[in-house]
Amino acid sequence: MKVIKTPIQGLMVVESELHSDRRGEFARFYCKDELQEWIGSYNILQINHSHTHAVGAIRGLHYQNPPYTEIKFVRCLKGRVWDVAVDLRAGSPTQLQWHAEELSEANLRMMVIPQGFAHGFQVLESDSELLYLHTAFFTPDAEGGIAHDDPQLAITWPLPVTEMSDRDQQLSPISPSFPGIDT
């Protein structure tokens, strides 16, 4: 596994090495030993899978408030997505900055999203599937979200938006008084 730092401190991209032979392929998706520097004493507590049909559909931007913040590992199993992480950490020098990566079944990339970040993605290929590994259990009462088109963030989504959940359509931009998330 190769860990690549992004311009936002703590946000990483992991590339897996693909091993191929006549039977097919093999790749390591996660190894706590190799990712120890980023996961620390946390363990994977929940694994989720999403399947999104329509090209242009957006899920997010979602996050968990303290004390339920989480490290999230996001990998595309099928298709292609534009995966976005937004730094919401209180006091961070990159607060409200975002970074995006194309994740696909072909490039074997995984985003390692630290605590205190919002996350969302746009589908670039129909029937795309993501696998998420979380270091905290989902807590509905702690869930937060930000509008995907928040002008303060100015996220460059690669395609016009074709679909969003009713809940995501109701998300608001960040308030000017937003203090950030303590992690």
List keywords for this structure.
183 residues, mainly beta, Jelly Rolls, five-stranded antiparallel β-sheet, 13 strands, 4% helix
Mind explaining what this structure looks like?
With 183 residues, this protein is mainly beta. It has one domain: Jelly Rolls, CATH 2.60.120.10. The chain is built from 2 helices and 13 strands; from the N terminus they run ββββαβββββββββα. The chain has a 6-stranded antiparallel β-sheet, with no helix packed on it. A hairpin with a 6-residue loop joins strand 1 and strand 2. The longest helix has 4 residues. The radius of gyration is 16 Å and the shape is globular. The two termini are 27 Å apart. The model has no long low-confidence stretch (mean pLDDT 95).
The name of the CATH topology is Jelly Rolls
Mean pLDDT: 95
Strand order, main sheet: write it out: 1-2-10-7-12-5
- The share of residues in extended strands comes to 35-45%
Order of helices and strands: EEEEHEEEEEEEEEH
Q: Briefly note the structural class of the backbone.
A: mainly beta
Through-space gap between termini: 27 Å
Q: How many distinct folded domains?
A: 1
CATH class reads Mainly Beta
What is the alpha-carbon Rg in Å? 16 Å
Secondary structure: helix percent: under 10%
The tally of helices reads 2
CATH structural architecture: Sandwich
Q: Can you tell me the CATH superfamily?
A: Jelly Rolls
Structural shape: globular
User: How does the major sheet shape up?
Assistant: 6 strands, antiparallel
Number of beta strands: 13
